[in-house]
Design goal:
The chain has two domains: about 250 residues, 3-Layer(aba) Sandwich (Aminopeptidase); about 110 residues, no CATH class. The chain contains twelve helices and twelve strands.
Length: about 400
């Protein structure tokens, strides 16, 4: 009997030891993917001074440098490390292929009301307010710049309320962890940066939808607010924001790995960590996709410039007869709203025209009779700083693919 009790005791001790080991198993955070929102031909939100894509890239690189320097065991990957267009599904694809432990997407906000200000952090979910839906629509509109987006996203229309109903069926296995990190970000944004805390929110963001790890989208401030835009474009402002997200990351990592950071309350005074150049900024270990030339056959009509849009002292551009006339132009920019053909963004270009396509305003220069001439013009335009410029073809007022244009040229 005594022997039986001794054996039973040993058995129970073994079971408890094994259970304790399992219960204390923690999740290591060793791979992080940082996503700079928008880029290339997609400027994102427009402020009076700058574009969203420029700010998000700077903050993303600064954040990556902080993590690399402050957490030596963490490998940082960027979805983009320069000004180029990356499709939304590819951004999630980078994180999934890297088998990341955390995905952080950096953005800037915008609102028709210039009084809106502050930071808010989103996790994947169904929007609970019209304001959240509006933000999701604004960020998801980037897919309209992707060729054949309807097929890629299974018919999803970023401008249709009905499309977002599908997100109600989506159960995020990492919602709790994502929310924990999002709360950390908001606390740091408020206490360290001094930004208005607009809270943690849920909405249907395509860039988060396909990720297979805790994921958040950080709206770092409003470009539509003049004061906040100046802060966002400043080196100091970007350093503060990057430092806040880094602090939030350290807290999240410690909790996930079961590390006790202590009970000492940190100062609420905003502080900035000095950011040194790092190899991760110069050479992120990820291949980013190249912008894809649009080759769909949309039903688009060229919109000729109005007299009131012509600069003072400049004669209206003489238009060629339309009909079935085949012309090649170089597309240089696009925007969710009409910026006007006299916009400073188009300075240095001649014969600028605008046409509507896939819900976007698109701007072209030139009116060439041959593809060779258009390609020469493309090279000239790219030297002027329009790196994402590419050739498009029109048959009369209808936008056609380059392949179809080549076939028409053969028949001449």
């Amino acid at each position: 009997m005594h022997c039986f009790k001794w054996i039973t005791g040993i058995f129970l001790l073994f079971i408890l030891t094994e259970f304790n080991a399992i219960s204390q198993e923690k999740t290591l955070i060793t791979k992080v993917v940082i996503d700079a929102g928008h880029g290339g031909k997609d400027p994102g939100a427009l402020g009076k001074i700058t574009q969203e894509k420029n700010i998000t890239l700077q903050i993303a690189l600064k954040l990556g440098a902080l993590i690399s320097q402050g957490c030596k065991d963490v490998h940082v990957t960027y979805t983009r490390d320069k000004d180029e267009f990356i499709e939304l599904h590819e951004r999630a694809g980078v994180a999934n292929r890297q088998k990341a432990d955390l995905f952080i997407s950096i953005h800037c906000n915008s609102n028709p009301s210039h009084s809106f200000r502050g930071a808010e952090t989103y996790v994947m979910g169904l929007h609970k307010s019209e304001a959240n839906l509006a933000i999701a629509k604004q960020e998801n509109a980037s897919i309209l710049m992707e060729p054949d987006y309807a097929t890629t996203y299974n018919g999803f229309d970023p401008n249709s309320d009905e499309s977002y109903i599908t997100f109600s069926l989506y159960q995020d296995a990492y919602l709790g962890q994502s929310t924990d990190f999002a709360r950390n970000v908001q606390e740091e944004m408020k206490s360290r940066v001094g930004l208005n805390d607009r809270g943690v929110r849920q909405a249907g963001f395509l860039v988060l939808y396909k990720t297979t790890m805790p994921s958040v989208l950080v709206e770092t401030g409003f470009l539509s607010n003049a004061e906040e835009e100046k802060f966002l474009i400043s080196k100091e402002g970007q350093d503060y924001i990057a430092t806040a997200i880094f602090k939030a990351f350290k807290r999240f990592k410690a909790k996930m790995e079961g590390v006790n950071e202590g009970t000492k309350k940190e100062s609420v005074k905003p502080d900035v960590i000095a950011i040194q150049p790092s190899k991760e900024i110069a050479k992120p270990e990820v291949k980013v996709i190249q912008p894809t030339k649009e080759n769909t056959k949309p039903e688009a009509k060229a919109i000729q410039p109005k007299k009131e849009n012509v600069k003072p002292g400049q004669k209206p551009v003489e238009q060629k007869p339309v009909g079935d006339n085949l012309v090649f132009r170089v597309q240089v920019a696009l925007s969710p709203k009409d910026i006007g053909i006299t916009s400073h963004r188009l300075d240095g270009l001649k014969d600028v025209k605008m046409y509507r396509h896939q819900g976007m305003y698109k701007y072209t220069t030139g009116d060439e009779d041959s593809l060779d001439e258009a390609l020469k013009l493309q090279a000239e335009v790219q030297k002027k700083g329009f790196k994402d410029a590419f050739v498009v073809a029109f048959k009369g007022e209808e936008r056609i693919s380059i392949e179809e244009a080549k076939e028409l040229m053969k028949k001449k």
